[in-house]
Design goal:
Elements (H helix, E strand, L loop, with lengths): L2 E5 L3 H13 L3 E5 L5 H8 L3 E5 L7 H11 L4 E5 L4 H10 L3 E4 L4 H18 L5 E4 L2 E4 L4 E4 L2 E3 L3 H12 L5 E2 H9 L9 H16 L6 E4 L3 E4 L4
Parallel strand pairs: 1-2, 1-3, 3-4, 4-5
Antiparallel strand pairs: 6-7, 7-8, 8-9, 10-12, 11-12
């Protein structure tokens, strides 16, 4: 269920749209003018605004401009004006979509839900893995320790990523090697040990009193566990 703000001065249309959205599982706040629209967006956790252009006291394009100064919430403009230039002007002003009156209710619903999905996808917080002052950004493929950037190779990053994603797992050398290198592990291959050694050195260089990678003798490695 999403929270939608409907700003429409025509009572019948406002009620019709609001009731239809509620019937389709959405929570609706309705206003008959634009005076409190921006305040409502800020304070009520609104996820989309359906905004009529022809409003009393403060017209729709001014309300849109007010909202855009403080929020990136999706705004769908509703208007009887259907000139291409008018649509272009509103999109440049910050509208995410445009519906011309009279409109089909199912099309309106589809546009609303599509804009909410796009907004939700785009606003997801960046995935970060954190442990004892160590921070990995999976989106940017960067790492830092105690606020200092770590210069890691791609395979060093992948090793840390696996350990942080599975803090309770003991990785065998074969499992860790095959996950990172994508090749079959050969017992005589020393590449994994070298990368682990280099990783430990880089981490100790910044934080000498902390441990991050434990050796589990006879098995492999795991994220450090106190005690």
């Amino acid at each position: 269920m999403s929270k939608i703000l409907v700003v429409e001065d025509e009572k019948e249309i406002n009620k019709l749209v609001s009731d239809f959205l509620r019937e389709n599982g959405h929570e609706v706040i309705s206003l008959s003018d634009g005076l409190k629209a921006c305040e409502t967006v800020e304070n009520e956790g609104v996820e989309l605004v359906l905004l009529d252009l022809m409003l009393p006291y403060r017209n729709g394009d001014m309300v849109l401009s007010d909202i855009r100064k403080k929020s990136t919430v999706p705004v769908i403009v509703v208007s009887a004006k259907e000139t291409t230039q008018n649509k272009i002007d509103l999109l440049r002003l910050g509208a995410d979509d445009y519906i011309t009156k009279p409109f089909d209710m199912e099309e309106m619903l589809a546009r609303i839900e599509s804009n909410i999905r796009r907004s939700s996808f785009g606003s997801k917080a960046e995935e970060k893995l954190e442990f004892n002052g160590l921070v990995l950004s999976e989106e940017n493929l960067t790492a830092s320790l105690e606020g200092q950037e770590l210069s890691l190779t791609a395979k060093e990053f992948k090793i840390l990523e696996l350990l942080l994603k599975h803090p309770d797992k003991v990785f065998s050398k074969a499992n860790l090697f095959e996950s990172v290198w994508g090749e079959e592990y050969l017992a005589e291959d020393n590449a994994l040990n070298v990368h682990i050694s280099n990783l430990r050195a880089k981490l100790k260089n910044i934080s000498p009193d902390k441990d991050f990678i434990d050796t589990v003798w006879g098995i492999g490695f795991r994220l450090h566990k106190e005690g």
